[in-house]
Amino acid sequence: MVLSYRVLSAITKLGLVAGSAYADSEYIWPNAKTDLLESMLYEQQGFGSGNSPATFIVPCDKVPFGTGRNGAAEWLRTAYHDMATADVVTGVGGLDASIGFEVNRDENPGIGFNETLVNLAAFLTPRSSMADLIALGAVFAANGCSNGSVEIPYRAGRVDATGPGASGVPKPEQPLDEHITNFQRQGFTPQEMIGLVACGHTLGGVHGVDFPEIVPANDQNTQTFDTTNTGFTGFDNTVAVQFVNNVTQNPLAFGHNETTNSDARIFNSDGGEEIGKMADSPSYFYQTCTTLLERMINTVPKGVALTDPIQPIAVKPSQLFATINSDGTMTMSGYIRLAGPVTANPNRTVKIHFHPRSGERDTGASIVSKSITSASSAHVLYGNPPLTFWWYQFSTVIPVTQGVSGFDVEVVDTSNGATNSTMYKNGGQGFPFDDTIVTQPKLSCSETIYNGLMNLTVAVSLPTPNTTSYLSTNANNNTNLDP
């Protein structure tokens, strides 16, 4: 019995659905629940990096929202305002993207929320909910603007709300007891309230157009919270240092309107002890912000289960394709992404050991090995040194009768005359590939810009004699069989 392929072409309608992701504790590729978010989180610049929101706000000196407005500050503010409706006792609310329904409330002034959501909407997929993207934006803001000194672990699994949450975002004019009550409802103690406000107000400032009662009303006027790099960039403890030294320009601490000096009331609520510790020790400031901001983005509605922190995947296949050729062979191609080092080993060889369709895993002729020596890189835009990935491209021809059910990846490094070989088997089962139905990119086309239509051609394996037929279905569902 020999498998042949029938090639099918059909018109299909593309759709976009918001969803949520849940990962297993032990990573096995592929994991549709976290793979895309892992790429967004770590592939920030370089090869294959066009699908990360980091390109909007990292490095921190990017100011895409206009004069006097910082994208990183807006993204961090959006995450807090989205979470701030949470009631941790009842389990209602949290970081769930309900902010999209709440932008017209008086507790959410400014156009930054809408602009943040528009930026992030470009990355909304069934595997990346808007709530997960908002949390990811906060991670980029803190991690990027601190050059990795604040490294918030990122978990996935947030579920998008279908309507607005309760009100309850703290306002500058509220008295201290109301602030304490609001933060306790969100799950933060009075001491943690001080830390979270200081961490949030190390970026950005107050816009006059949004808060004319605090700073002069002018669309171009922004009074920053501190003076680090003109106050727009630099996630550090300057906001605490300047407050303690009474030299701050923070309009919520020493503004002309005493009613709205909420930062002063909050920072002094424990006699200045916590803000003093944050001012005295940059490391304490960074650790406090890491802990509290992680808590903030992980505050989710009851019943929502977050994944383990997403770590960089050591070996990750990408863009795997099998194309059926007219001579009874199939061309298998794709990329293998390896994590680090910063400088690629010029003496590295990557081998792909294919498993035949039967699933056998021996070292005989049924397994094809392909050596790869050239690589392209991608990296994270902060940290010293930054996390780096190397991409190795491969393409090899395999008999259709043999097929592919998966493969192992062998990495061979030679240095100073010594050779080290490491085999990656993806949890012992190999990296899977199903060649029952394989797309044929050269025979497909799309019109997504205009009407969301795709003419998709696929090859389908059939347990029939060694023949190949082509079935084409057009948009009118007329079927033609061509030899």
TrEMBL record:
Q: Which UniProt keywords apply?
A: Heme, Iron, Metal-binding, Oxidoreductase, Peroxidase, Signal
Q: Which SUPFAM superfamilies match?
A: Heme-dependent peroxidases (SSF48113)
Keyword Glycosyltransferase tagged: no
Q: Which residues form the signal peptide?
A: 1-23
Q: Which Pfam family is one of this chain's hits? A: peroxidase
Fetch the PROSITE patterns from UniProt. Answer: PEROXIDASE_4 (PS50873)
Q: Which InterPro entries match?
A: Ccp1-like (IPR044831), Haem_peroxidase (IPR002016), Haem_peroxidase_sf (IPR010255)
Entry-linked Gene3D superfamilies = 1.10.520.10, Peroxidase, domain 2 (1.10.420.10)
List the GO biological process terms: cellular response to oxidative stress; hydrogen peroxide catabolic process; response to reactive oxygen species
The GO terms this record gives for MF are: heme binding; metal ion binding; peroxidase activity
Q: Which domain of life does the protein's organism represent?
A: Eukaryota
Identify the EC number(s).
Answer: 1.11.1.-
Q: Tell me the ranges covered by the Plant heme peroxidase family profile domain, including all copies.
A: 56-337
Please report which protein family the annotation says this sequence is part of: Belongs to the peroxidase family.
Instruction: Report the protein name in the record.
Output: Peroxidase
The organism named in the record is Hypocrea atroviridis (strain ATCC 20476 / IMI 206040)
